[in-house]
Amino acid sequence: xxxxxxxxxxxxxxxxxxxxxxxxxxxxxxKERSLVEIKQKLGMSLMNELKQNFSxxxxxxxxxxxxxxxxxxxxxxxxxxTAAFSNVGTAISKKLGDMxxxxxxxxxxxxxxxxxxxxxxxxxxxxxxxETTVTSLKTKVGGTxxxxxxxxxxxxxxxxxxxxxxxxxxxxxxxxELQC
Length: 180
Fold this sequence. Notes:
The longest helix is centred in the middle third of the chain and has 54 residues, at 65-118. It is elongated and about 135 Å long. The protein has helices spanning 4-42, 46-62, 65-118, 121-141, 151-166, 171-179. The protein contains six helices and no strands. It starts with a helix and ends with a helix. By secondary structure, the protein is an all-alpha fold.
């Protein structure tokens, strides 16, 4: 327990400390205002200070051993990944090149065989069946030229006859649609 006299001394000391703290706060505030005024006169801003602080902090981080080890590890991993992607890219390019060379060979073979295919018995048979079907359709629709004619003529006259029988429009219109 404290005596009355000790309590009075502590209260006096407490009051004195509070006064000193108040005085120090006032002095500190005055110094801070003075600091801001000087920085403004020198053209220094809060942003510049932040940049300087950040640069210094970043430099401090970069000089740590943990950062250096991490940087080395990531650099090594990046090199490995680059090599792996390069190998994959090379493999894909090679595969596409192989596919392209095969497709070019196929198209050449295909174009060479077209004349032979047109002269084949199967193609001739198919062509005859198409002409027979067109002639038959023309006869059923009511065409006048039963003597055959070229495939284009037969197709054109069939289209005209079809347009007339369905009432879809005039023969001139059907002819125009076919020519487009």
